[in-house]
Design brief:
With 292 residues, the chain is an alpha/beta fold. It has one domain: Aldolase class I (TIM Barrel), CATH 3.20.20.70. It contains nine helices and eleven strands. The strands form two sheets. A nine-stranded mixed sheet has the order 5-8-9-4-3-2-1-10-11, sandwiched between helices. A two-stranded antiparallel ribbon has the order 6-7. Strand 10 and strand 11 form a beta hairpin. It is globular and about 55 Å long. The protein starts with a strand and ends in a 5-residue tail after the last helix. Bound molecules: iron/sulfur cluster (2 copies).
């Protein structure tokens, strides 16, 4: 069994927001699709990998009509993993609150616009009104925003609710330049300094599963899965990623799985899509296009 820190379940390609520069290219209306529940994926991979965290991921996972089945399946096949829903918060409701106790699931909320703050806070206040949540202090200290306001809460089962007000952030990590059809990698696929991108990457431990196949990280998965709808596979700037990156297929043999994970743990040529450092000016302009 291979221990991994994070497994992202890429179960929705589309999103109800459009944040230019989106890590998975889900901001474009051309990108569509939900992945219906499939037991076979979980049955196979639960005999091979043990993730510490399993994140319901997209796009916006609350748009998947089978989200509860995915939670139920992951809880059964990986009873010891921490389950998390990574959501923009726009569709959070009381029904989702009940899942915390049923599936021991946590919520990471990235609020990308101030306009729907009341929806997010309704959900948080309903959770707090149960009396089951306390302010969360993790290994980094109290989970607060830059103004000392509490933004994380935890219950006795170690399920948390964390709110990140992304719309307040002045930087947006540059996984690639521009957005959607206009996107470009930061460097050539065969540049030899890809270690520099990987060295500063906060996503490098997040293996991504889409339709039962595994990808290095959310950025690479987003490019290879959603890039076709945007015509990126036809573009000279991106075609080396489509032609050279090797995902790990469902039902691969153990020797192939071991090799793939050994490579996944380190820098790879595909990391040339990402910047070597925060590119503040350019990405702030791109991110200002966030819209409903
Ligand atoms: S809410 Fe998240 S998934 Fe949706 S477009 Fe914005 S960054 Fe992408
Ligand atoms: S391609 Fe490499 S540097 Fe970019 S997000 Fe993925 S792991 Fe990080």
């Amino acid at each position: 069994m291979i221990d991994i820190p994070n497994l992202d379940m890429f179960i929705v390609q589309t999103c109800n927001l459009s944040c230019a520069g989106c890590q998975t290219f889900s901001d474009s209306k051309l990108v569509k699709g939900v992945t219906r529940y499939n037991n076979d994926y979980l049955e196979f991979w639960s005999s091979k990998i043990q993730p510490a965290y399993i994140n319901m991921f997209g796009g916006e996972p609350l748009l998947n009509p089978d989200l509860e089945m995915w939670l139920d399946g992951c809880r059964q096949y990986w009873p010891d993993s921490n389950l998390v829903i990574q959501t923009n918060g726009l569709r959070l409701s009381e029904e989702h609150l009940s899942w915390i106790d049923t599936y021991n699931v946590s919520f990471n909320i990235s609020q990308h616009m101030p306009e729907y703050g009341s929806k997010v806070w309704n959900f948080i206040n309903q959770a707090l009104a149960t009396g089951k949540f306390q302010p969360w202090t993790n290994e980094n200290g109290p989970v607060q925003n830059g103004y000392g306001e509490q933004r994380g809460w935890i219950n006795s089962d170690e399920c948390h609710i964390q709110l990140t007000e992304s719309f307040n952030e002045t930087v947006w990590w540059s996984f690639y330049k521009n957005t959607a059809e206009e996107s470009k990698p930061n460097y050539n696929y065969f540049s030899n300094d890809f270690h520099s991108s990987w060295n500063v990457c906060g996503c490098r431990t997040f293996v991504n599963m889409f339709e039962g196949n595994l990808y290095k990280c959310p950025a690479v998965a987003g490019l290879l899965i959603n890039g076709d709808s945007l015509g990126l596979n036809e573009k000279n700037t991106w075609k080396d990623w489509f032609n050279n990156y090797k995902r790990l297929n469902l039902y691969s043999q153990d020797v192939i799985i071991d090799e793939w994970f050994n490579e996944q743990k380190g820098p790879q040529s595909c990391c040339n899509m990402c910047a070597h450092k925060l590119d503040m000016g350019a990405q702030t302009v791109v991110n200002s296009k966030v819209k409903l």
